[in-house]
Design goal:
The structure is a single chain. By secondary structure, this protein is an alpha+beta fold. The protein contains eleven helices and 20 strands. A hairpin with a 2-residue loop joins strand 14 and strand 15. Helix 1 packs parallel to helix 4 and helix 8 packs antiparallel against helix 9. The longest helix has about 35 residues. The chain is globular, with a radius of gyration of 22 Å. The two termini are about 20 Å apart. About 40% of the residues are buried. The structure holds flavin-adenine dinucleotide.
């Protein structure tokens, strides 16, 4: 959606295909990072964006056993907003759509599921989609696969995937939030268990981290035992774990970490999770996907207005975004293997590794993880020109 917005703003005729009829799906990550807020500022949309309901997170903390450590202090990041905004992703996407519709070259087709990539003479020339009106072909000088970590486009295009793997899966649920509850967002861990809580106004979005593939075993123990696990780990939730009536109130998200060896082929480019599925660690996947979109628009918008981008143009996008992808996945893998794996081992007595203890003794250092999470490696800036000024808002 971000790429669609930026290309349409730069005068490129663009059609976004979305397989669902709306963006209302729980839960798909609701973090809008300082670097994304900075892009909103560069686009002149920040003030309006911040009028939409959201919460602002300035510190990221974690607790192992009884020890609580602030891992990141976002109040010093080098951007206009020194916080991370928590906003349902459907509100963010709807915001982008509303503004993209200001541009006559923006087209959005909902309920259009891409099923095939259409090739002619070794070049991708568009896609075939399943729509309410039947199968439909969409021709394009460039097809961008931004269809997430189970990308149909990358599969259809036969691009080689490098699996990095993850030792965990995540169970998502909501529990109500009450006056007097602590903090805004934090993680609790103890031998074999880990719960991350994100304050979302009237409720906590809860992520219960489990060893990969162990969801069935957990379900067999029954919902009562699961409620007890949560209450033991985070005692202030004991008075409301009954809100989890049965397993229908708990959804499983399987974690995947991978990346494509090559993000492109003639006529086609993959970005976001389709090019590199991200672990939920640090909650940086949305940010990275948006940064990819900005880099793609910066590199390709002018070309797309005049001609069909060549393979070497597409290669420039991968070259630009490979370093931040590799570096972020390296950090995520290190945290997965050195901390999460240890915490999920029931026989261990987990504690913070020594570098984390430094964060407690020297709070100044909390700015480093905050910068990695909040801004990321190689932040992008909007370099494309707006072709349309002061257009009346579309109905
Ligand atoms: C458990 C879990 C929790 C996470 N939490 C966070 C978090 O808090 N913060 C964060 O930044 N990241 C988080 N992430 C990562 C984040 O969700 C992704 O990195 C990010 O959403 C990637 O954006 P994207 O646009 O590439 O793909 P997506 O957000 O997956 O969007 C892909 C879109 O394409 C549509 N689509 C799919 N297939 C087709 C098709 N065939 N035809 C048409 N449309 C199609 C989908 O409906 C969807 O709208 C989390 C990941 C996991 C697994």
């Amino acid at each position: 959606m971000m790429l669609g917005f930026l290309l349409a703003r730069a005068g490129v005729d663009v059609c976004v295909l979305e397989k669902h009829g709306d963006f209302l799906r729980d839960f798909r990550g609701d973090t809008i990072h300082p670097s994304t807020l900075e892009l909103m500022y560069e686009l002149g949309l920040l003030d309006e964006f911040l009028k939409r309901p959201h919460q602002e997170l300035r510190q990221i903390a974690a607790q192992i056993g009884n020890e609580m450590i602030v891992l990141g202090d976002l109040t010093h990041v080098p951007t206009h907003c020194k916080f991370l905004a928590l906003m349902p992703q459907w509100d963010f996407l709807n915001f982008l759509v509303e503004h993209a519709r200001d541009f006559p070259t923006f087209h959005l087709k909902m309920n259009a599921e891409v099923t095939e990539v259409v090739e002619e003479n070794g070049r991708v020339v568009g896609v075939r989609a399943k729509t309410a009106e039947g199968p439909q072909d969409v021709a394009a000088s460039l097809t961008v696969g931004a269809d997430g970590r189970h990308s149909t486009v990358r599969k259809q295009a036969g691009l080689e995937v490098i699996e990095i793997g993850s030792p965990m899966d995540v169970l998502w649920m909501r529990l109500s939030r009450k006056p007097g509850d602590p903090g805004q967002s934090f993680g609790h861990a103890d031998a074999g268990k880990m719960l991350v809580l994100i304050g979302r106004g009237e409720y906590w979005q809860c992520a219960f981290v489990i060893p990969k593939g162990s969801a069935d075993e957990l379900r067999q123990r029954g919902i009562a035992a699961f409620r007890e696990d949560i209450a033991r780990l985070t005692p202030f939730l004991r008075d409301r774990v009954d809100e989890l009536h049965d397993w229908n109130d708990v959804s499983l998200l399987t974690v995947k970490v991978d990346r494509l060896a090559r993000w492109y082929k003639p006529g086609l480019l993959c970005i976001g999770d389709a090019a590199h599925a991200m672990s939920p660690i640090g909650g940086v996947g949305i940010n990275l996907a948006i940064q990819d979109a900005v880099a793609t628009a910066n590199i390709l918008a002018e070309k797309l207005r005049r001609e069909i981008p060549s393979e070497s143009d597409l290669e420039k996008v991968q070259q630009r975004r490979m370093f931040p992808t590799r570096a972020t996945q390296w950090v995520q893998t290190a945290v997965q293997n050195r901390i999460i794996k240890r915490v999920l081992d029931e026989s261990s007595r987990p504690s913070f590794p020594w570098p984390f203890k430094l964060l407690k003794d020297w709070p100044y250092l909390q700015r480093i993880p905050a910068r990695i999470i909040g801004v990321g490696f190689r932040p992008e800036h909007v370099r494309t020109q707006a072709r349309y000024q002061n257009l009346p808002r579309a109905a």
